[in-house]
Amino acid sequence: MMGRGGSWGASRPLPFTGALGTVPRAVAGPAGEGGGLRTPLRVRLVAAPSCISPRPADSAAMANATPERILVVDDHPLVRDGLRSLLAITFEACDILEAAGVEEACTVLAEHGECDLVLLDLNMPDATRLSGLVQLREAFPMVPVLMVSGSFDRALVQEALSAGAAGFLPKSMKRDGIVNALHMVMAGEIYIPDTGLEDTPASAEEAQIRTRIDSLTPQQKVVLHHLVHGRLNKQIAHDLDVSLTTVKAHVSAILQKLGVFSRTQAVILANRVHFD
After folding, report:
1. Mean pLDDT of all residues in 129-153
2. Which candidate, 105, 37, 53, places its Cα nearest to that of 74?
3. pTM of the predicted model as reported, rounded to 2 decimal places
4. N or C: which end of the chain has fewer CB within 10 A?
5. Contact status, residue 74 vs residue 126, Cβ threshold 8 Å
6. Could you tell me the pLDDT band of residue 187, with boundaries at 50, 70 and 90?
7. Which CATH code, of 1.10.10.10, 3.60.150.10, 3.10.20.740, 3.40.190.170, is assigned to 201-272?
8. CATH code of domain 16-196
9. Is a pLDDT exceeding 90 seen at residue 61?
């Protein structure tokens, strides 16, 4: 940290009723392959989540992929009950565990040993965006984690795959589609819903926001972080041990690069892409 006088400064959802209830669904588009996976898995794209047909070569592997233990992580009891019922029917001898949060999931995994699969809801009270996935992957890297969500877009699916997810499961899918997706993941493949891979206007706009934020210098990103957390210029100057003039210069540069006219607008853009 430099002291004062130093050189520190210079989708539109559509309603759809599936096996787990009525939830929003993003409009579908072409699928792509995610990178940065921590385990070597093959990617097979599926044309429609409600009618997935495994390749003949994989049929035997999918049929023999019977899990001994699956953990369902969701803060809504009704969703957990729905998934539990589906899993109990699909895998009769499987031990199904539940957790209402990421911290509880870590405790369950530590107590019961690693599971064959974790179904993790995207929106959890003790996690932000994909932080729950990252936390589970770091603590239990050998456990495949299948993300579950009612709404998503191309950018989010790609981020999840890059963070090590074994796939992305829409809550809008019908029962048969969910079962086939589970079999695919258990067979060592990655399930990617075609319905989640469209570049919607919203996701395209968010991509532009991320590009603008990426153009900020490291020092400007630190200042933006403080702005997002509601810090005033004087407080930021004190926290970073720099002059008030330096902070004002950074704020002006941030507004210019983000194409906004006020701190409030800058914070709104940053929050849209979960910058922190």
Report:
1. 88
2. 105
3. 0.53
4. N
5. no
6. confident
7. 1.10.10.10
8. 3.40.50.2300
9. no
